[in-house]
Design goal:
By secondary structure, the protein is α/β, with parallel strands linked by helices. Helices cover 39% and strands 17% of the residues. It binds glutathione. Belongs to the bacterial solute-binding protein 3 family.
Length: 339
């Protein structure tokens, strides 16, 4: 009985894949198509948004570019597919995108029931609250009875309910699908509180009519490890995305930058030589070229450069490295070795 059920469920899953044209050979499909289809945010400054020339930019967007550079040696071979929180998982499941790089929290149910694989955390985040300064609130524990604006289809919505319940507090949720509308609802005074990932709060604050009239409260109520994701069941493609992420971290650790990567190919350091393809076949073993890391770092720099360019202290978001510093600098970012 149990076996029959499993077989039936598998049949539905396989039929779903066949109907959508998604296959387990994503790397071959991407190469044949000549572009990577990358699911990104519809517009989250610092992570995935379009500039005034219509060009995509952000930390997640740089991950799309890094994977395109690894596959094609050309970071421009990306077709960006903007997705709302609700749209993102079906788009990956049905093969509309090859990679989802959209401030998506790695959770058990997404990794199992939703059939995704997460390639590694490209930003350690956590959920927070923003309120109007005039409310004179200094802690989230003072928010009982508040009206809270939140985006649907997110972990945010679920954590919000848990937090208020756990602290015996009441709240009135205003649940909205598009983040722009969430921001507008809060800005117009329809809600007392806006809640989302801390990174998103800093981005949202920039979009308020008077950014300085808003304050982000100190409490972080959840773990939001944001991670690029692929469909389950395609280890080769999963490896390409996972090791692109690890290459970006290892490049930072070894001091390989966008500016010096060509020079570094002549380095006598065996670790750097291995990574940049001298005398190794690591790239080829994954279905890429052996200078895959040179291509990635030439296109987007290392992880630290991606971070600073998009969300770091010199950007409007002004976020410190914090937990996103390398493990050698007191942070959580750590990659297995390339050998
Ligand atoms: N990390 C959370 C939240 C992701 C999320 O969608 N966050 C919102 C608020 S920062 C967002 O990106 N909205 C932009 C949009 O949908 O255009 C998750 O994976 O569920």
């Amino acid at each position: 009985m149990k076996t029959k059920l499993v077989v039936a469920a598998l049949g539905v899953a396989i039929a779903g894949l066949a109907a959508s044209g998604a296959s387990a050979a994503t790397l071959a499909d991407v190469k044949a198509r000549g572009t990577l289809r990358c699911g990104v945010n519809t517009g989250l400054p610092g992570f995935g948004s379009q500039n005034d020339k219509g060009e995509w930019q952000g930390l997640d967007v740089d991950y799309c570019k890094a994977v395109a550079a690894a596959v094609f040696g050309d970071a421009t071979k990306v077709q960006y597919v903007p997705l709302s929180a609700v749209q993102r998982f079906p788009a990956l499941q049905n093969g509309e995108v090859d990679l989802l790089a959209r401030n998506t929290t790695w959770t058990l149910s997404r990794d199992t029931a939703l059939g995704l694989d997460f390639a590694g955390v490209n930003y350690y985040d956590g959920q927070g609250f923003m309120v109007k300064k005039e409310l004179n609130v200094t802690s989230a524990l003072q928010l009982s009875g508040a009206t809270v604006c939140v985006q649907s289809g997110t972990t945010t919505e679920l954590n919000l309910a848990d937090y208020f319940r756990a602290n015996n507090m009441q709240f009135n949720p205003v649940v909205i699908e598009a983040q722009n509308d969430v921001n507008a609802a809060y800005d117009s005074g329809r809600c007392d509180v806006l809640t989302t990932d801390q990174s998103g709060l800093y981005a949202s604050r920039l979009e308020m009519s008077k950014p300085d009239d808003n304050v982000v409260l100190p409490e972080i109520i959840s773990k939001e490890p944001l991670a690029p994701a692929v469909r389950q069941g395609d280890s080769q493609w999963f490896d390409v995305v996972k090791w692109t992420h690890f290459a970006l971290l290892n490049a930072e650790e070894l001091g390989i930058t966008q500016a010096n990567v060509q020079e570094m190919t002549k380095s006598p350091n065996p670790e750097i030589q291995r990574m940049l393809g001298a005398g190794s076949t690591f790239g080829q073993d994954m279905g890429l070229s052996n200078d895959w890391v040179v291509k990635i770092v030439s296109a987007v720099g290392n992880y630290g450069e991606i971070f600073e360019r998009n969300v770091g202290s010199a950007t409007p978001l002004g976020i410190a490295r914090g937990q996103n510093a390398l493990w050698t600098k007191g942070g959580l970012q750590y990659a297995p070795p390339i050998r």
